[in-house]
Design a protein that fits this description.
With 575 residues, the protein is of the alpha/beta class. It is built from 20 helices and 23 strands. The model has no long low-confidence stretch (mean pLDDT 96).
């Protein structure tokens, strides 16, 4: 008998299963493929924690996997000693189905292990969880969220004492604990109501919101600009049924926005996301209700935050239409605005620094160099940027003013160590008001930045490789590109190849000539002779290989032609 069948039987025979769970498993007893897909392997615990669809089984998100992961996490915290247990953990969840149940279950396991728990009274934005870890001096944090994934998903996002996502060695320790323990017998738990009553689980809420909002509002640079624009400047806002519903409108009102129009159908908290196919602000089609409302009220700007309110997407009015501002464009707009507004108001720190990921637009470097702001890039993920910020703080070298990623995530201030759509929404509103006073939209502002800093365009492709053979296909593609790298891409010569797995930098004809400043991630970075970059990276959370086109050109048209050329080449890699 193969392992997955044994595992299936192990679950079927277990008294820990509820009647409904047992029925769900019994119903698939004749479906070999479904049994295999649920039990062929556990969900892999990585630096972002766990993420998967909600079904009964080893390879899915359910109450048993939550208990298993939480016991493994509790053991890692407890290994740091009694002080770590006293500092404890902050726990939150978003709007997803089972979110509250999973969060309370995790709280019970932590409390039973003698670890102090601070549990939010209801759903909260991911950045507020990061804030709570730092604010209360917790040793760790946990958020039950699958971010912007479809409704079938839930996830288990883990944080350490700095408020950033877990460092790799801690994630590996949890993964190791999970590998060496049984799902059903490994964990301790307790009664939730009793643990709340005796103080092992403390419920937190409005006082934390207020402390968080106070710091968010302190990031505002030029409230006068908002005051000046407020009478005729309009914003439509949607939280896509999620966590931004309360704090984003509150932050915008405190900033001084008078005309704020929430999309009422999407202000309803609902983890089944009834009005959208995908609650991801990176997908413009999800904004259809917001666009309808914006046209009706004559709004200048649309802001949308994802279900856990760490990503933010925007659309801007151009005539009778609303046009998407990409994550790369918004990052550059905010960076340029923060630099110039801080200079104008005399609030720019000494030795300012900015950060973005290696797959984010090359325009970031151009903005920083022009404005004498120190710039560094990191691997994809805000934990890497948070780590770099911490290094700067420890060395007293640079004061970070802004960090961002192309995937609609932005970070400011010292109170969070993750992307933060609450603060970003407020800053986007302030910046849009600033340009509104000049008779410009954010699209006009972006055109001006291209003229000032040069023309750049970006595109991300997803080569989806589903099924059990998907991982093998992904591995083969990366292996082939390493063993037989292309000398040119779509006719443009490859000048250098950075392999971020081993940190090697190779030049055609010379072999390996140098090392990257950081390595250890499965990313291939091709530097092309025309100033563009072609980057290949397997996704850590989904069955796909991501290809990033970072284009540099002499004009917008030239950039678009290059995007098409490299896009066509990229699509052949998935064949």
């Amino acid at each position: 008998m193969s392992n997955y069948k044994e595992e299936y039987q192990h679950w079927l025979d277990n008294p820990a299963l509820s009647e409904a769970e047992w029925k769900e498993l019994d119903e698939i007893k004749d479906d070999e493929k479904e049994i295999e897909s649920r039990f062929f392997a556990p969900l892999e615990f990585g630096t972002a924690g766990l993420r998967g669809t909600m079904k009964v089984g080893l390879h899915h998100m359910n109450i048993h996997i939550i208990r298993h992961a939480t016991q493994a996490f509790a053991d890692v915290i407890a290994a740091d000693g009694e002080e770590a247990k006293r500092e404890g953990i902050a726990i939150a969840h978003d709007c997803r189905l089972n979110g509250r149940a999973f969060a309370e279950e995790a709280a019970c396991v932590m409390a039973a292990n003698g670890i102090k728990v601070r549990l939010f009274d209801a759903l909260r934005p991911t950045p507020e969880l990061s804030f709570a870890v730092r604010y209360y001096g917790c040793r760790a944090g946990l958020n039950i969220t699958a971010s912007h994934n479809p409704k079938e998903y839930n996830g288990y996002k883990v944080y350490w004492s700095d408020g950033a996502q877990l460092p790799p060695q801690k994630a590996e320790a949890i993964a190791e604990n999970m590998r060496n323990s049984d799902v059903f017998t490994c964990y301790k738990t307790c009664n939730f109501d009793e643990a709340v009553k005796d103080g092992r689980i403390e419920i937190i809420g409005e006082e934390t919101d207020e402390a968080f909002l106070e710091r968010v509002m302190a990031q505002a640079i030029d409230k006068e600009a908002v005051k000046k624009a407020a009478d005729d400047f309009k914003i439509v806002y949607t939280p896509f049924h999620g966590c931004g519903y309360k704090l984003v409108p509150e932050a915008l009102k405190r900033l001084g926005i008078k005309h704020l129009y929430p999309v009422e159908e999407q202000m309803v908290l609902d983890g089944s996301f009834p009005t959208v196919v995908s609650p991801n602000p990176e997908n413009p089609e999800g904004f259809y209700l917001a666009v309808d409302l914006a046209k009706k009220v004559g709004s200048d700007l649309i802001i949308g935050t994802d279900p856990d309110s760490d990503r933010v997407g925007t659309m801007v009015r151009r005539g009778d239409e609303y046009v998407t501002i990409t994550g790369n464009q918004m990052g550059v707009l905010l960076l340029d605005y923060v630099i110039n507004a801080k200079k104008a108001t005399g609030t720019m720190p000494e030795n300012p620094g900015a950060l973005c990921s290696i797959v984010t637009t090359g325009m970031t470097r151009a903005v920083c160099e022009y404005n004498n702001v120190h710039f560094e890039d990191t691997f994809t993920g805000f934990k890497f940027m948070a780590e770099r910020v911490a290094d700067w703080e420890a060395a007293k070298s640079y004061n970070y003013i802004f960090a961002f990623e192309e995937s609609y995530g932005y970070m400011m201030g010292d109170y969070v160590r993750d992307k933060d759509a609450v603060t970003a929404s407020m800053m986007i509103a302030e910046m849009a008001a600033h340009y509104h006073n000049k008779g410009m939209t954010l699209l006009d502002a972006m055109d001006e930045l291209y003229k000032k800093y040069g023309y750049y365009k970006e595109k991300t492709l997803n080569l989806v490789m589903p099924g059990l053979d998907g991982l093998a296909k992904m591995k083969k593609l990366m292996d082939d590109l390493r063993s037989n790298p292309p000398e040119n891409i779509a006719g443009t010569e490859v000048l250098r190849i950075r392999d971020y797995q081993d940190g090697s930098i190779a030049v055609k004809g010379l072999g390996k000539v140098d090392k990257t400043p950081f390595f250890g991630s499965n990313v291939l970075f091709f530097e092309l002779a025309d100033g563009s970059n072609f980057i290949v990276r397997p996704s850590g959370t989904e069955p796909k290989v991501k290809i990033y086109l970072l284009i540099r050109g002499k004009s917008e048209q030239e950039c678009e032609e290059k995007v098409e050329k490299y896009n066509n080449y990229a699509e052949t890699l998935g064949k």
